[in-house]
Structures are given as C-alpha cells and as structure tokens.
Amino acid sequence: MKKLILSLAAGCMFTTGYSQQVPQKEVARIINTLAADDMQGRQSGTPGSDKAAAFISEEFKKAGLLPLPGEQSYLQRFNYYGLHTTGSTLTVNGATKDWPVVAVGPSRHIQLHRDTTNCTEMRAGNVDELRAALSKRKSLQKNMIVWLAPSLSGYIANLEGSIASRMYASEQAVPADTAKWQMVLVLEKEPLSAQDNWSVEQTRSVRAQEFTNVAGMIKGETKPEEYVIYSGHYDHLGILPAEAGDSIANGADDDASGTTAVIMLANYFKKKHPARSLVFVAFTAEEMGGYGSSYFSGHMDPAKVVAMFNIEMIGKESKFGKNSAFITGFEKSDFGPILQKNLAGSEFRFYPDPYPEQNLFYRSDNANLAKVGVPAHTISTTQIDKDQFYHTVKDEVSTLDIKNITDIIKAIAVSSGTIVNGTSTPTRITPVAE
C-alpha cells in the first residue's frame, strides 16, 4: 500500500488514506438499497423508479453537490414522446377477449384478422422464440401476429415500454404513420386452433412521458468551464415472469453497481477541491433506448466535456481476474493509458474491451457524447458472454462481490486524478457522421 500511495502522489492530488474514503460498508448500504425489492425493479416511469431517484437525490444532497446550471434540484425532468394505446379490441369467434395486445412500430390504426391478406402467424413459447420473432420486425414483408405463451405475461409491460415504438425528443419528431406492414403481439391466454377466427383492432396516439435523471456537480476551482462526468444508469426492467416465486428484476449488477459507484465517487471528491468541474449523473431509461443520457448529452456542450467515466456492471470479477476492469472503446482515445499510468505501482489493470463483437461501446450511456467527439468510455467487469443473471430476476446483490465493487471504485477515483486536477486531458474521439 505504501508503494501505491507514493507512486500516485506525484500524478494525483490524493494522499494517504484514500481507501478509507471509499468504505465498503457504504458501498453495501447503497447497492442494497437500490436493488431492494421495494424498488420494484426501477423500471422508468414507475413508482419504483421515482423512489430510486428520490434516494439518489438525497445521497447527492448529503454529498454536498450543487444542482446543474439551470436546474433547481438534482432531479432533471424532461419529456419524450411516443405512441400510446387509446383503444384495443381482440375478438375470438366473435367473443371479446381481455388479452394484452402490443403493436410494434409507428402504426396509429391497426386492423388484422385471420383472413387478412398477407398476414402470417407465429407463436412464441419462450424468451428465445420471442426474440426471434421481434428480430423480424424491421424487415416485414407482410403483416404478422405473434401469439405469446401465458408464461411470457411478465414481459408485456417491458415490450410496451421498449419495443412497441421509439420515443422522440419532441412531438413533432414522431414520424408519420407510413408503415406498410404491421406486427402485433398478443398474449394467448387460451389455446387457439387453426379453425378459430380472430380479429385485432388497435388505435394509438402520440403522448408525452416524463423521465427523470438525477444529477449534481462540484464546481471546479481553476477550470470550472471544463467538465468531467461520472455516470451510471439507475433504471432496470421492473417486473418479469416469476421464477421460483420471484418476479422482481432487481438489477443489482445492471446497474445498481454503477449507480453506487457514482454516489461513492461524489462523496470521495467532495473535499478534493478539483480543478475541473465534476458532474455526477444517474441516468434513467437506458434500458428503453438511452433516453436519459440522450437528453443529458443534448444539454452539455461537448467541447467543454473533457472526459466521461460511464460505469456499467462492475459487480463481479472480470475475465481478467480481480483488480481489473475493461474499458469500452479503449483504442479510440488515450483515456485508458492515462488511467493506467495513474495507477502505476498498483496491481490494478484496465484492459481493452474483450467483447468487441457485442458492440458495448455504443450500447451504453457513454455513446451519445462519444459520437460527438468526447472521450466518453464505459468501465465494466461484466462477463457478458456467460452471465446467466443478466436481465433476469436473479440479478440480486447476493450474486455480487462487494469488495470487488469497492476496489474498482477506488481505482476509478485514483486513476481519474490527473484528469480531475487538470494535468491530463484525453485525446478526442473521432465523431460519428450522421
């Protein structure tokens, strides 16, 4: 430990005792609160999400953060716009059924029946079959109705929130209904035969939905117009089909672990007198399409953002073992080498993303700022290719390594030191052409 502290002293503003400034007990308290059953899976737009936002806001208050410029509180509220069902009727052999119906795509008025020309039927009895059906939605050559098994009932709310239609930053941006072909998902509460006649009619209209990011900042002392961002998303999937009586997708690793890191880093830096301004933000609606980070990024001047540390799923040991994490888009800037240099003498190592085929760099909340040139990267440890708990009700705190989370938070705190104190500036990422 003494060797580590001495090696860091010249490059960072931190001195002895940094480990005590990220207490493991606090890490456990925060992550257990965020991933508790009473948060109901923190799906955006639900009471559980509101409760999580209130908790994070209170933690930011205790850390002494300031609201972002132009905001009156830590709650950054905004609207996005999408299609909302205004009427839905399903009949089978002339009898009206109360089976859930989810339309996919931009259609405002949908009318399908068994004798419809150019209409195919599929059945999805499990999650893999549901995914296979949804994969066809962007290349339809005719209308399609997908009958979902009763066991998939817990997915209906998430399908409506994340698959049924995209959301847009303004009402005017919602595209007109130009869909030639339509896909409809129906929960098949009773078995249908080939002889049964069915019909579906649904109407939808544009509606605003309110979302809430939670954000605060520490104003820089000598370079206040230069920003370093620490972020994670606090939303998750809400309620899923029950497994062994458990239907709550607690999202402990995804991403209560990252949100916990953001809160702990706010407490770590509150007495450090940073040169650059530090922004700490917990995003909403990452699981629905990154709407929280999209709104936030649209209100930041990318030229003033020096770096973004997005933290996603750090609850378990990485494939490289303990004292390690990987950085998405490692090759796109010198962000990673700067962090590693600041950890010289320690055992901790940052590695390039070992899962390039997963395209993780553009699948998390760093993407919106990275696309406009900010060295915005995600730090993670997830073994995404083999994690059996990802996006299931089994993503519980009991599956996580709290000490490992704590060690990663400490490493992020120390490795970002020269960026925070203004002596290091990561190279910019090549912007993505629209």
TrEMBL record:
InterPro entries assigned to the protein according to its UniProt record, in alphabetical order: M28_fam, Peptidase_M28
Annotated Pfam families: Peptidase_M28 (PF04389)
GO MF entries: metalloexopeptidase activity
One GO process term, biological-process aspect: proteolysis
Keywords, alphabetical: Hydrolase
Chain ranges of the Peptidase M28 domain: 213-413
Name by which UniProt lists this protein: M20/M25/M40 family metallo-hydrolase
Organism: Chitinophaga fulva
